[in-house]
Design brief:
five-stranded mixed β-sheet, alpha+beta, Pyruvate Kinase, Chain: A, domain 1
Length: 731
C-alpha cells in the first residue's frame, strides 16, 4: 500500500509525539514508589517557578477575587490556560500541572516535521523531531513536573518559523495569517518573545531589500512584514487580534485595494510599531543577561547600591563549551555535525536562513569568546529544533550518499534507511542516557509540604511569610499566604531586607521584618492611589524606589547605614496590620553564604564588607586526632582547635545539637575560649558540622533554626521540625 504524503506526515508526527511522551515517562517509572515526591497521593512538580503559575490557576478555579496587592498571577497566560484545561478534562489539578509539560512540549515535533516536508524531506523532519524532543536542555525544561512556560516557549517560535518559511515559498495568504496569529499567541504566552519576533521580521526585511535591489517582486513579502508588525505592536492582545483578522478579511475581499495601498499600510504598521515601543523591550531583556553588573544603584534619591541577583543565578552564568554542546545536541560531536548540517541545509535551501534568530539566541548561551560572555543555560533551548533539523539533514544526505555505493538499487534503498537508523540511534543515545540519569527531585519533599499545609491552617491569606526567594512560590501555593520575595520578585533592593533579617541578630531582624512587611503593603497602597496621576499632580504621593530608602527618609536619616544601626536601639515601629512568620528550612543551610551577599555591603557606597565566615561540612572523615571537614578545614580534637587553611584557631565554643525520641532539640554547649571568633556546631541528626564566626552564630537563622534560641519577647514558635521551623513575629 502506497501512503499519501499527508498520511506519511501524520504517522511520523504521531510516532515522534508518542516517543517524546514515553521518554518523559521514564522519570515517573523511576520514582513511582518514592512517597516523599508525592502529596495526597499525587506527584508534586519539580520546578520552583511552576508554583507561581499553579497559584494563579488555583485561585482562578477557586473564584478568588484579585486584590491590588495580591501577587497571584490571575491574568497570566499559563495560569489561565491551565485553569481552562482543568475545567475541561476529568483529571485532578495536581495531575494536570504535572503532566502538562510532557504533553504540550511534545507538540514541537509537528512544526519540525512540517518544515522538512516543505523541502520534500520528511525523513529529515522525523529524525530532527526525535532528537529535538529529547535533547538535554529541551528535556530538562519540559520533563514531567517542569510546570513552566517552557513547555510552549519553543513550540510557538518553531511554528512561527514554519509559517514564515511556507509564506515565503508558497506566497499563500493563509500563512500570512498563521504567522501573525502565532505571533499574537506567542506574545500572550510569553511576553519576552518580542525580541525573537523582531529578529524574524528583520531578516525578512533584509530579504525584501535584496529583492528590491534585484528588481524582483517583493510585495507579498512586504505584506507579510505588515501582518507581523500589526501582530507585534505594543497594544492589547485583543486589539492586535482584531486588526490582524480585519486586515486578512480585507485582503481576501479587496485584494487589489490592499496591494494598491500596500506602501501606506506598511507605513502605518511601521509607525505604530515605533510609537508603541519599538526597540525598548529588546534591549531591556538582553542587558539583564549579557551586560550585567554585580551591583545595581538607584540614580535618584539616596542613590543606594544593591547586590544583583543575576550574579548568583546559575542559568545566567557562563558555561563551558562541552556543556553548551551537550545541552543543544547531546554531545560535542553531534553539535558539530548539526552545525555543519544546518550550513549545508542553508546552502541547499537559503530560506532556512530564517532560522538564524533561534540559532543566534541559542548560541547566545555560550557567547563570543573575547567579545562577551554568554547568557547562560536558559538560552540553549532555542537552538535545539534548528540544530536538530541540521542533524537530520546531514544524516539523510550522508546516508543517501553511502547507499549509492551499492550496485543493487533495492539494496541501496534499504541501506539508506539502515544508515539513517544507525546514525539516528547514535545521536539519540547520549540524550536518552541523560534522561535516565537526570533524576531531578521535586521542589519540596512530602514532609516539608506537610509543614506548609499545616501553616495554611494557621495563617491568614493576608499574612506574610519571610523566607528566601527560592521558597517564595511554593510557600504561597501550599500555605496561601504572602511573601516579600519570590522567583520573580528578587531584585537586590527587595532581597536586602530579607537577607538582613536572616543574617542579623534577633532584635534588629524582628524590627526589619515588621518594617518591610508594612512598607511593602504601604507601597501597594501608594501605587494604587497614584494610578493615572501625573507626578506633578497635587494628589500624587512620592515613594522611594526601595523600602529601605523610604524607611531611611521616614526615620529622618540621610544615610541608610545610620538607619540600619538604629535598629539596634528602641524605635517606633509601624502599626501592626497582619501577622508575620519566619520560614527557616534546613535546606537553606547550604546557601547561607549566598544570602549574606545581599545585605553584607555598604548601601551608600556599594562597598562590600568583609564576608562573615561560614562553612558547612560535606563528607566527614574522622581520625583519632582530628575530624576532617574537607577543603582544608579540620577539627583538632584534643586541642579544641579548628584549622582553616593555614590558620589554626582555638574554638570559642563547640556545640552539639540532637533531637531526642520526642523530637525535642537538645543542645550540649562547651565553651572553650570566649574570646575566639570561631565556633563549631555539630548537627548530629544531620551528620554535618558548621564552622562559623560570631556574626553568623548570632544570626537569626542560626539561632532560631539550628539552636532554637529564640527571644520570647520577639518570636513565638509555631512549628518546630527538623526539616523546617516556623516562628511567628510578636511585634
Amino acid at each position: 500500500m502506497t501512503l499519501t504524503t499527508n498520511k506519511k506526515t501524520t504517522l511520523l508526527i504521531l510516532f515522534a509525539f508518542a516517543f517524546s511522551i514515553v521518554v518523559r515517562l521514564i522519570w515517573v517509572e523511576q520514582f513511582s514508589s518514592e512517597e516523599q515526591f508525592k502529596f495526597n497521593g499525587e506527584f508534586m512538580i519539580n520546578t520552583n517557578d511552576g508554583y507561581y503559575y499553579a497559584e494563579g490557576a488555583r485561585d482562578i478555579l477557586a473564584g478568588v477575587t484579585k486584590n491590588t496587592n495580591d501577587l497571584s498571577p490571575f491574568e497570566n497566560a499559563t495560569s489561565v490556560f491551565t485553569a481552562l484545561i482543568v475545567k475541561i478534562l476529568p483529571f485532578s489539578f495536581e495531575t494536570v500541572i504535572f503532566y502538562m509539560p510532557a504533553f504540550f512540549a511534545s507538540l514541537l515535533v509537528i512544526p519540525i516535521i512540517l518544515i522538512a516536508r516543505e523541502f520534500d524531506r520528511l525523513e529529515v523532519g522525523f529524525i530532527a523531531a526525535l532528537v529535538a524532543s529529547v535533547a538535554w536542555s529541551y528535556y530538562n525544561r519540559t520533563m514531567v513536573g517542569y510546570f513552566d512556560t517552557d513547555f510552549l516557549n519553543i513550540v510557538f517560535p518553531t511554528v512561527l518559523l514554519w509559517s514564515l518559511i511556507w509564506a515565503l515559498k508558497t506566497n499563500e495568504d493563509k500563512y500570512l495569517l498563521i504567522a501573525a496569529l502565532d505571533s499574537i499567541a506567542y506574545r500572550w504566552w510569553y511576553p519576552q518573545s518580542y525580541s525573537l519576533e523582531f529578529a524574524f521580521i528583520a531578516l525578512i526585511a533584509i530579504y525584501v531589500v535584496y529583492q528590491y535591489i534585484k528588481k524582483q517582486d517583493f510585495q507579498t513579502n512586504l505584506l507579510l512584514i505588515s501582518f507581523m508588525l500589526f501582530a507585534m505592536v505594543n497594544l492589547d492582545g485583543f486589539v492586535r487580534l482584531s486588526v490582524v483578522v480585519a486586515f486578512y478579511i480585507l485582503l481576501k475581499t479587496k485584494r487589489d485595494l490592499v496591494f494598491r495601498y500596500l506602501y501606506y499600510i506598511f507605513a502605518v504598521a511601521l509607525i505604530l510599531f515605533f510609537v508603541t515601543g519599538g526597540f525598548d523591550p529588546i534591549w531591556g531583556k538582553l542587558k539583564g543577561y549579557v551586560f550585567r553588573d554585580a551591583l545595581d544603584s538607584g540614580a535618584e534619591g539616596l542613590g543606594l547600591h544593591f547586590f544583583t541577583v543575576m550574579q548568583t543565578v546559575r542559568e545566567a552564568g557562563k558555561i563551558p563549551f562541552e556543556m553548551f554542546a551537550n545541552r543543544i545536541s547531546g554531545h560535542t560531536l553531534t553539535l558539530l555535525a548539526s552545525m555543519l548540517g544546518y550550513v549545508w541545509f542553508v546552502y541547499r535551501h537559503p530560506v532556512m536562513l530564517l532560522a538564524l534568530p533561534m540559532v543566534g539566541l541559542g548560541f547566545l548561551a555560550y557567547g563570543i569568546p573575547g567579545l562577551f560572555d554568554g547568557g547562560g543555560l536558559r538560552f540553549t533551548i532555542y537552538a535545539v529544533p534548528v540544530m536538530a533539523l541540521g542533524l537530520g539533514f546531514i544524516i539523510y544526505e550522508i546516508s543517501k550518499w553511502l547507499s549509492t555505493k551499492f550496485i543493487n538499487d533495492k539494496v541501496a534503498q534499504i541501506s539508506k534507511y539502515v544508515f539513517m537508523t544507525l546514525f539516528t540511534l547514535g545521536a539519540l543515545y547520549p540524550n536518552i542516557a541523560h534522561v535516565i540519569g537526570y533524576k531531578v527531585p521535586t521542589v519540596f519533599t512530602q514532609d516539608e509540604v506537610k509543614l506548609l499545609d499545616k501553616l495554611h491552617e494557621i495563617a491568614d491569606r493576608e499574612d506574610y511569610v519571610v523566607a528566601w526567594w527560592d521558597y517564595g512560590y511554593p510557600i504561597r501555593y501550599y500555605s496561601d499566604v504572602k511573601t516579600l520575595i519570590d522567583g520573580g520578585k528578587h531584585s537586590g533592593s527587595v532581597n536586602f531586607p530579607v537577607s538582613f533579617i536572616l543574617n542579623s541578630p534577633q532584635d534588629p531582624a524582628a524590627k526589619m521584618a515588621r518594617l518591610d512587611v508594612e512598607y511593602t503593603e504601604k507601597r501597594f497602597s501608594v501605587n494604587e492611589a497614584n494610578k493615572g496621576l501625573d507626578v506633578n499632580h497635587t494628589n500624587y504621593v512620592e515613594f522611594a524606589s526601595s523600602n529601605i530608602e523610604q524607611m531611611t527618609l521616614d526615620y529622618k536619616y540621610n544615610n541608610t547605614n545610620d538607619f540600619l544601626n538604629s535598629l539596634n536601639e528602641e524605635i517606633e515601629l509601624p502599626a501592626k496590620t497582619r501577622d508575620v512568620y519566619l520560614y527557616l528550612p534546613n535546606r537553606m543551610v547550604g546557601i547561607v553564604p549566598t544570602i549574606t551577599l545581599f545585605s553584607n555591603l555598604d548601601l551608600m557606597s556599594g562597598k562590600k564588607r568583609a564576608q562573615p565566615f561560614f562553612y558547612i561540612s560535606g563528607t566527614v572523615q574522622e581520625t583519632q586526632e582530628s575530624v576532617e571537614l574537607g577543603n582544608g578545614v579540620r577539627i583538632i580534637k584534643k586541642m579544641g582547635q579548628v584549622q582553616i587553611g593555614n590558620d589554626i584557631l582555638t574554638m570559642n565554643s563547640f556545640i552539639v545539637t540532637e533531637y531526642d525520641a520526642n523530637g525535642v532539640l537538645r543542645k550540649n554547649v562547651q565553651v572553650i575560649d570566649k574570646d575566639s571568633p570561631v565556633s563549631v556546631i555539630f548537627m548530629k541528626n544531620y551528620n554535618q558540622f558548621l564552622v562559623l564566626d560570631k556574626n553568623m552564630l548570632n544570626s537569626t537563622y542560626i539561632q532560631l533554626f539550628v539552636l532554637e534560641n529564640y527571644d520570647e519577647t520577639l518570636y513565638e514558635p509555631v512549628i518546630l521540625n527538623p526539616m523546617a521551623k516556623i516562628f511567628k513575629l510578636k511585634i
